[in-house]
Design goal:
mainly alpha; 1 helix; 84% helix; rod-shaped
Length: 107
């Protein structure tokens, strides 16, 4: 009977020890979780101002893009007018050169 009791006590001690290891592991993981959550919250707080600045820049993009497109259209219109003028000038009949004036000789 003594042997059975000692075996039972040994098994009970092993279970108690494995239970304490399991509790420490769970507490360690919980601590790690809370530490990571704290870091994430801290980063979110510090980047919140940065997000607002980025949002303001993104909101300003449509006006900048519209202005850039307006400038591009004006430049393309000027280039098209210049090309059309050059084509029209090239298709025009050649103007005859004026006759040279006779030089007058002085005595």
């Amino acid at each position: 009977m003594e042997a059975r009791v000692s075996r039972l006590e040994g098994a009970h001690d092993g279970i108690k020890q494995s239970q304490s290891i399991l509790v420490m592991a769970v507490m360690g993981l919980a601590g790690l979780f809370f530490a990571l959550a704290g870091i994430m919250v801290t980063l979110q707080i510090f980047t919140y101002g940065h997000i607002d600045r980025v949002e303001a820049k993104v909101d300003a993009l449509p006006a900048l893009i519209s202005e850039e497109f307006r400038a591009m259209r004006a430049e393309m219109s000027a280039q098209t007018a210049a090309i059309a003028g050059a084509i029209t000038a090239a298709k025009a009949p050649a103007q005859p050169l004026p006759a040279p004036r006779p030089e007058s000789r002085k005595p």
